[in-house]
Design brief:
Elements (H helix, E strand, L loop, with lengths): L5 E5 L4 E7 L12 E7 L2 E6 L5 H19 L7 H15 L12
Parallel strand pairs: 2-4
Antiparallel strand pairs: 1-2, 3-4
Helix pairs in contact: 1-2
């Protein structure tokens, strides 16, 4: 599966997560195949190989969720369901899924 790169803006929490092509990781994690960088309040970048495994993508998104909670001064446990939906949305984006708003049933 190929990774979809790009910017994901989460307007309801004013947070941006970038999925970026892999580049040389910091020396502290020189052997990493994927990594995340906290760019500052409201922004982090996830660096992934084009063919990275879904489990590694989920691993890095979990770090992004931790940064989101840290930056917004919220407890993950208090936002348990919201964080699960955010994980689902970010993982879907990275794996190239498109979300289509369904029409209400009559």
């Amino acid at each position: 599966m190929k990774i979809h790169y790009g910017k994901v803006y989460l307007p309801h929490i004013n947070y941006t997560v970038w999925f970026r092509p892999f580049k040389q990781p910091p020396r502290s994690i020189a052997n990493a195949r994927a990594w995340i960088q906290h760019e500052g309040p409201g922004l982090c970048s996830i660096y992934l190989l084009r063919n990275e495994s879904p489990s590694s993508v989920a691993h890095e998104i979990t770090h992004a969720l931790a940064y989101i909670c840290h930056d917004l001064h919220i407890q993950f446990e208090d936002e348990f369901e919201h964080m699960a939906y955010t994980m689902q949305y970010l993982l879907g984006f990275a794996l190239g899924y498109e979300y289509v708003k369904s029409k209400p049933r009559r």
